[in-house]
Amino acid sequence: xxxxxxxxxxxxxAALSGRRSQGTSISRVATxxxxxxxxxxxxxxxxxxxxGDAAEIVRQSRYFPNWWTTVAMFGVFGTALLLAATxxxxxxxxxxxxxxxxxxxxxxxxxxxxxxxxxxxxxxxxEWIYRMVPLGGVAATLAWRTPATSIYVVIIGLxxxxxxxxxxxxxxxxxFALTSIRIIGITVTFVYIAETARRAARLLxxxxxxxxxxxxxxxxxEARARERARFAGVIHDKVLATLLDMSRGGCPxxxxxQANQALGQFxxxxxxxxxCTDLEAIERIGREVVDATDAELRVQVRxxxxxxxxxxxxxxxxxxxxAAAEAVRNSVKHADVPGRxxxxxxxxxxxxxxxSVVVADDGxxxxxxxxxxxxxxxxxxxxxxxxxxxxxxxxxxRPGAGTRVALEWNAPDDS
Length: 415
What we know:
The protein is an alpha+beta fold and about 425 residues long. The chain contains twelve helices and eight strands. Strands 1-3-5-6-8-7 form a six-stranded mixed β-sheet. The protein has a two-stranded antiparallel ribbon with strand order 2-4. A hairpin with a 2-residue loop joins strand 5 and strand 6 (about 355-360). Helix 6 packs parallel to helix 8 and helix 8 (about 175-245) runs antiparallel to helix 12 (about 375-390).
């Protein structure tokens, strides 16, 4: 431990510090995620349906001309493969364009299927493409707005009923009506499920945006309150202290340093904080505390190598420095003992988990329980300042046994 002057402390600790500080819209997150998941599921689902109906597709292909098979394979399976491949990584507007292409070409293939085959050639129950109409409706839901999707579902349902009736040779109005109702009903069910998921995602985004807005308002109000508290603290710690020392005929150089510190702290209020390394925090805290008074002050610094990755925002470093400086000033004002010199010590310790600052003296001491709650030096400049910085202050003293003020701040646990 050594007794350091203000300028010597700055040079000594600065020599230890060779390192520098290191320094999709929230309202659409869930909606975009659910759209991507649905589009990917659509692309994969088409191929699963195709795998299940592969034998029927091959068997019915001999009744259709090659041009229709080419259109159907591209419109159904080609675009579905593109959807599955791009859904999770390509820009969503481009993926929606692919979904719109899938829905459009699929509808064209359905409409042409009845014309491409002679009536009654398909002896199976229905054309294979008929079973995939609900997936075409889902593609339309993901590509267009609700009115366009509704029109699409009705049109594709009527086209599918007409085409399958043409292919199987059952062209009666009764069968056409029943087939239309059946396929439109199934498609509407698929579309409803997809749209319900999207509506839930939109509601989640809306609530998230509202919560974010409320949190922003609360954070802004908290920041204003913190700035008011910091302003009051600077007034008490620097301005009033400087005026008091001036009235007592204090050292001009010390008064000039205190005045410059006050101006700097006023200018810093409201600024965005940078991050400090462990050594930079030690240097700044020690320098500001030593500069706060001309009293003899022993300084001890402990720097664990485990603290090398510690980063502390400048506001926290300021809170530690100002609270410690206030503790030193209180000691100078109230701890003197007649007939002997009072030993005052500043200890700064940086560890991996955080930083601690201790101001201790062997002076007159006092009973903390008898200190008025409105005493700014303790409640505002030390205890409340540390609480607002996310740390804590502990004051231990008793008459005749000196005083120990411990300031602690622990880094947030990211795990």
